[in-house]
Design a protein that fits this description.
It is built from 2 helices and 18 strands. About 7% of the residues have low confidence. Strand 2 and strand 3 form a beta hairpin. The chain is 16% helix and 46% strand. It starts with a helix and ends with a strand. It has one domain. The chain is an alpha/beta fold and 168 residues long. Strands 2, 3, 5, 7, 8, 10, 11, 13, 14, 16 and 17 form an 11-stranded mixed sheet that branches.
């Protein structure tokens, strides 16, 4: 009887442990652009301009659970393509896009995003208080854009309209 109780007790614990180990994405990577070395390191592999604290990139792919953070005071210049395949982009600095940003993941913006290229959003964009999104070219949205109190979006967004959250 004691053996049966022990097996009944141990089996659920084993199942939970196996699930916890298997559900973690061991390949998820966090990239924080905050200076020259973080800009130039792989896989960002950008070009750093120390006069303007700007990291210029041509191509970057974020895989599921990957995170890209643009720190306060840093400008990320996108001249090629960023493919966000279910990762997260946290922007506290400035993103200047003259290339293409394909977002199927999440973008959380408290900085500035200026688009004079193409943005295609099928994921989610949260423009937090203080966040600014300026669009002057192509911005296609089939996902969700939330514009929180104290943020702004200028220019035309095609497709699903942004959802504005009023101030309380």
């Amino acid at each position: 009887m004691r053996s049966v109780v022990r097996k009944i007790f141990v089996l659920p614990i084993l199942v939970v442990l196996i699930f916890a180990i298997l559900s973690h994405n061991a390949y998820a990577v966090t990239y924080t652009i905050s200076d020259s070395s973080s800009c130039q390191a792989a896989p960002v592999s950008g070009t750093w301009n120390s006069d303007t604290s700007t990291c210029t990139i041509t191509n970057l792919t974020l895989n599921p659970d990957d995170m890209l953070t643009v720190s306060t005071g840093i400008t990320l210049a996108v001249n090629g393509i960023i493919n966000n395949n279910y990762g997260d982009i946290d922007n506290a600095g400035t993103i200047n896009n003259t290339g293409t940003i394909n977002n199927a993941g999440k973008i959380d913006n408290i900085g500035t995003i200026t688009n004079s290229g193409t943005v295609t959003n099928s994921g989610s964009i949260e423009n937090d208080s203080g966040g600014i999104i300026k669009n002057s070219l192509t911005f296609n949205n089939s996902g969700v854009i939330i514009e929180l109190c104290g943020s702004s979006i200028t220019g035309t967004v095609s497709g699903a309209a942004p959802h504005s959250v009023a101030c309380r």
